[in-house]
Input
Amino acid sequence: MMTNAILGTAHSYLKATNEPVWIIRLSGKLADSDFPKWRLYDNEGRVYQVKIDYTSSSIMENKDGAELDQTLIVKGLPSLPEELTLSLLTIKKQFTDINWKVAIPSKQ
Output
């Protein structure tokens, strides 16, 4: 589970290709220390590619979980529409009942 806040957006250009991109900065609390992956939709249902900028993103673990500071790079979005939806793609499931048994057939 993650609670987050969008800290801001900015229009920029990728250094290597000079491609126009939007930068989204967000922060939040995580149950574990994995970087979440995202998908971005506009109000007409178009999907935009979202990449994580690992050079400016961080996760700090603490006793209550982890604090996320993440920078996302959005390609193919010509301008900011009235409304965007940022959807979480990855959810980590942790099993605490590890007393599993599997029958192994005998070789005859």
Residues 2-88 form one domain. The chain is about 0% helix and 50% strand.
